[in-house]
Amino acid sequence: MRKVFNPISMLAGFTVMLMVTACNGVFDGIYDEVPATPSIMEGQLLVDATSWKDWCYVDFDSLHAYVERKDTAGLLKAQTRFVRCGIPTSLSSGTGDGQTGIYTYWFDVFGKGISVNEKRSFAPADVQPEPQSWSLAFHRNNVRTNNGAVLETNYTSMNDLPKNSAAFLGAVFQPDEWTENEVWVDRSQMLQSLIGCQGIMLNKVLSSWLKLEIPPMPPAFTHKSHVFIVRLSNGKYVAVQLENYIGADGTKCWLKINYKYPY
């Protein structure tokens, strides 16, 4: 399934966005806004991953606590409100570790496509802030785990999954890996085909459920509906599936995710 950007939204994307470095919901108790009446049911997440400037964190243990308390109303609310942590774009002190920071890459946007790219510069920055407890983090079409690993299945329905994760015990799960040109942060030089990217660990298997393609122009998204199994650092498993990535107003990267936890 393919959807294309609204050209007006693409033009607006060339404006410079200010970066923040605090975790809303951790340091100042502020959560991200969600639609007043989101279409969501138990076993689903509605994640606003539209921002270039921060990561949105989901903690499945916290969600499951509502299930154990039989607090359905609290659970539905928690499935739309998450901790957000801004992406650091500068170094507050010291010289850094030589790896953590913003990497500026040139992408062959108007030629062979963004798969062809070259590193142009590096600026050290602070380490990415994180909440104390989290399972998955989302940034537009990027997903990372908290020291977990991911398996892509051939299932396209949560109802068709085996009864539990024991069916996948012999499978190979892929951990996160270091990336320098996947998490696009600074678009102030986009007209020159230059993008500032965050150097960070990323799970490429899970991130493959929503792929950005350039060309064509305007850019297009490719959505994969497969169910993915995530092995969390606590030894538990969660099954996740991206059902939709378009918000009620047509904005891309509003992620509607089906999940089963613990699986």
TrEMBL record:
PROSITE patterns the record matches: PROKAR_LIPOPROTEIN
Lineage of the species this protein comes from: Bacteria, Pseudomonadati, Bacteroidota, Bacteroidia, Bacteroidales
Name this protein carries in UniProt: HmuY family protein
InterPro entries linked: HmuY (IPR025921)
Entry keywords, A to Z: Signal
Pfam families per record: HmuY
Signal sequence, start to end: 1-22
Source species: Prevotella fusca JCM 17724
